[in-house]
């Protein structure tokens, strides 16, 4: 039974990566709400039940029907409290929506951006309408219609436009300090880049500029927030976390140093060696020998 579940989750993830989109009914045997990588996919979820959602630095306790918008660049977690839980969800990549042709990034929408409104309370009438849209997406993805991707994109945009008509929910507990909020999200996003589990998936966010872009912030604002709240620069936090991961890889894997350097985002092993020695006072090879 366990092997069948693993196989189902693996098949679901492979299909999602291949198509860039997947819609499903929550509770179906083929998947669960947490069986995909939030590093890659946006999520829209229509659900009914009781849950606690932590989104960046905010918390929302929900009992009823909500529409949730998840951004892969902003850390969030979802704890289901009730024993009965139902709804629909769709996952999609930014490339699937072909946002390069649009004037505004998805991350700038009021539902997906940092500090936006990711959760809306849904009444019965609107729930029935949205249920219909999700069911249409689920059925359409199974067809051989040549333009089904475009049709599914229209359904996603229809959901977003329906949400734009509604008043934002105000039931969040917010940090009073905006700098504290930004810093909290940065630190969570930084931690989510680790551990590095495969050489085939090297570290992608390596600089303050990378994190600022992922969070749709100006790098100067991110740097000021992190420095004011923690006393350390954004670059220092990133460097210290990379060093911590480098130590773990040197001590607990048999990867060669060149592979470790590449997995941590260094183009050449010499760059990694110089970086490691500057921050630790020793070189990677010496550390590995000491541990042995």
TrEMBL record:
In terms of Pfam families, this protein maps to: HTH_18 (PF12833)
Which InterPro entries does the entry link to?
Homeodomain-like_sf, HTH_AraC
Residues of the HTH araC/xylS-type domain: 180-290
Keyword list (alphabetical) reads: DNA-binding, Transcription, Transcription regulation
Q: What is this protein called?
A: Helix-turn-helix domain-containing protein
Please give the organism.
Answer: Pinibacter soli
Q: What is the lineage of its organism?
A: Bacteria, Pseudomonadati, Bacteroidota, Chitinophagia, Chitinophagales
């Amino acid at each position: 039974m366990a092997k069948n579940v693993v196989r189902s989750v693996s098949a679901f993830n492979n299909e999602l990566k291949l198509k860039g989109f997947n819609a499903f009914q929550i509770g179906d045997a083929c998947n669960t709400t947490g069986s995909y990588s939030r590093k890659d996919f946006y999520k829209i979820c229509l659900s009914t039940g009781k849950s606690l959602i932590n989104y960046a630095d905010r918390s929302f306790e929900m009992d009823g029907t909500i529409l949730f918008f998840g951004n892969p660049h902003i850390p969030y977690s979802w704890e289901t409290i009730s024993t009965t839980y139902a709804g629909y969800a769709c996952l999609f990549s930014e490339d699937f929506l072909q946002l390069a042709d649009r004037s505004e990034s998805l991350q700038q929408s009021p539902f997906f951006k940092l500090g936006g409104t990711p959760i809306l309370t849904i009444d019965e009438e609107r729930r029935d309408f949205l249920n219909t849209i999700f069911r249409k997406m689920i059925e359409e993805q199974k067809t051989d219609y040549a333009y089904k991707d475009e049709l599914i994109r229209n359904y996603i945009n229809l959901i977003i436009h329906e949400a734009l008509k509604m008043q934002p929910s105000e039931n969040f507990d917010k940090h009073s300090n905006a700098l504290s909020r930004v810093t909290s999200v940065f630190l969570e996003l930084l931690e989510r880049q680790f551990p590095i589990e495969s050489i085939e998936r090297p570290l992608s966010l390596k600089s303050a500029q990378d994190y600022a872009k992922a969070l749709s912030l100006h790098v100067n604002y991110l740097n000021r927030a992190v420095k004011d709240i923690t006393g350390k620069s954004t670059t220092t936090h990133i460097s210290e976390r990379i060093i911590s991961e480098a130590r773990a890889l040197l001590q607990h894997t048999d990867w060669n140093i060149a592979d470790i350097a590449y997995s941590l985002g260094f183009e050449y092993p010499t760059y990694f060696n110089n970086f490691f020695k500057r921050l630790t006072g020793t070189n990677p090879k010496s550390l590995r020998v000491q541990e042995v």
